Request: fold
Amino acid sequence: MTGTRRAAVLGSPIAHSLSPVLHNAAYAALGLDNWSYGRHQVDEAGLPGFLAALDVEGEGWAGLSLTMPLKRAVIPLLDEVSATALAVDAVNTVVFTEDGRRTGDNTDIPGLVAALAERGIDKVETAAVLGAGATASSALAALARVCTGEVTAYVRTPERAAQMRDLGDRLGVAVRTAPWERAVEALAAPLTISTTPAGANDDLASGVPARPGALFDVLYHPWPTKLAAACAERGGTVLGGLDLLVHQAVLQCERFTGVAPAPLAAMRAAGEAALAGN
Reply:
């Protein structure tokens, strides 16, 4: 392959993103010396102009990773969007095809599934979700592939509850909602996915049962969260935000480069090293 190839992550804020560390580690492991991956501070207002500038630059750009607040804003700017991304109204991956088309996908959902499978969690009878934002939507879509029964979503407002039930209907998942004040009940489920901001689930740590199920807490810094530490101390299976970040980045790398499999171990090691240096 000749010529410089580029990819990047966009968002606002973006300085904290580990994506460049993961993707550049993958390029190094694959021997793709002509590939580079950067980061750009881009908000919703600036996104159309950024994409237009890439069109002017022409060849060289392979793809983009998108974080908040761009996952929904990018959809009208794309030529094609996968069914997976449309299901949750969120695109985190844009691939530029050879004929100049912009195609959107969501690797958070299969990334969640792959991270769970890596830890031996292929099917559960019931599950719980903490929160109701964009990541909770991806979690619910992942559970559509993993959970055979009911999912309980613990949320703070009736509006959020209605949104999660509606999404469950679209995904074919039986969703029951409960108020956040009862969130400690989630920890009795065989699998709990926490999608809340830093500190929001700390109060639940004291309620971890003696024999907890699996916890997937999507934060990676600070890590471990109080809840994750309490679950691990009691022998529960614990996954963190780095697990999700690495697995979704593996899928992005494969889509951008066309090389599969992407080097999961090298990407995870790079992410762990970067977090250890914080």
Summary: DSSP finds nine helices and twelve strands in the chain. The chain has a mean pLDDT of 95. The radius of gyration is 19 Å. The longest strand covers residues 5-11.
